[in-house]
Amino acid sequence: MSRLELMGRTATYLRNAGDVERSLAVLRSALAECPPGTLDHARLLNNQGRGLAQIARPGAVEAYRAALATLDGLASQPGIETMRADVMISLAGRLMLNGDDEDALTLATEGAALAHAAGARRLESVGVNIAALCHGHLGRVQESITGLERARELAGEDGTALLRYWVNASDLAFHLGEFPRALDIAREGMVAARRLGADRTSGMVLASNAVDPLMALGRWDEAAELLDRSLQVAPPSTSRSYLARGKAWLQLWRGDAEGAHETLQRSLAMFASTGAFELQSRLTVSHVSAEVALATDDVAAAWRHAQALLAADPERLHPGHVPPFGWSVARVIARAGEGTVDADAADGAPAALRAILDRFAWWPTHAAWRPLIEAELAQTAAAWDAAATAAADERLPVLVRPYSRLRLAQARFADADRAAARETLQHAVDEAEALGVLAVRDAALGFGRSSGLLRDGSRTPADGLTERERQVLELVSAGLSNRQIGERLFISGKTASVHVSAILRKLGASNRAEAAHLAHDLVAG
Questions:
Q1: pLDDT score of 456 more than 60
Q2: Alpha helices in 311-342 (DSSP H)
Q3: What is the pTM of this model?
Q4: Residue 191's Cα: distance from chain center in Å?
């Protein structure tokens, strides 16, 4: 083979093995040697676009467009139409991830047709795959499902095309609330990725796609094990940012809000890089960040993260992300009065959120999520009663079941219905414990303590304090400020503040003085 072909193949194998930096270095050398305006030049640009996309670097879309422009200037020759199909489908994939679904659909459909004419079934499968996802984003869910199954049929035994199917089919199943099916598809893909030597690339995306339904099903320990194993080997890439986001979500709902905060802080640069070119990534990271900010009582930060949905261009939103993120945004709106949030903006937020939700009311999980969202906005016992009933829907993550029970208990307590509140709260505690939603368990126990609803025989929420939180609590009881606590424990004052917020939440204490009053027994225990 020619030297340029050898360099191109080497770059491809390096990229597929997860060594993207070396792949791009080889491609830079190859492009410097390659005459512009040639088929080899277009092929190398396409390869470069894939590498840049994989590690969320700028220039991927530009590389694909330059490759297409090069092909447009070439006379017909063997392989040129297959190459054109390849570049069009690659570009369609990038545009889809950034919410440009109409343009992506056109490119993917045309590319699949060219691939079909050239007999390139792998390319045709990938093109049909991307077009199917665009159909779903644009409101044609059944076409999306049918298209993905057609993509699998076209893939046959081709590993590369099948990996794309497993990645996208598992993601779609998750957003449709089909958690067991999403998990089965992702696991099937992970096994194949390992066999094909792609476990550090496509395998990492599939691992993230398996973590999400595991958490939704309440299988937290399995999710944690898979996350830890994957993060140990995942190279710096978009897939690593997905795994970090998943880890923060797991830490949050398992009762370690400060750990979730630290995970997000360590990953900020990676999130920014990925989010610059992927709207879906920006939305999911903002979703997790809003929840973590709420859990650490940083309402102003939660409000900023909520704007990723409230201020988004609805034409570019992934409809599957809207209902669950909408629930979190509703929770932020309910607490907007606690932070430095503009009053006029807060007053208009419920209508803005409902307008977005109504636009995507056709998405299959919308009806399941809407009662929970309306309960956050209404804050009445009747609304929370309806939400608690809706939370049993199997298309919703299990964490909403004890959460809605806790909120119903709080609403009934506010209505002075102590007997019903006590029964509902105990149900919330038991369910949260059974489902492993420790953040809700701790919050329910804290509310039970502060309200006096669960005094007899109830466990102390001190069970939920980490060792670091016990150290911080001891210093709070000694009267130290957050800055002084940070200096004593060699952490930042901001991190100390996060720990203090978590302690107050877990103990059900309203302020530092109340926490200090409880500290003697808790630390001694």
A1: no
A2: 322-334
A3: 0.81
A4: 22
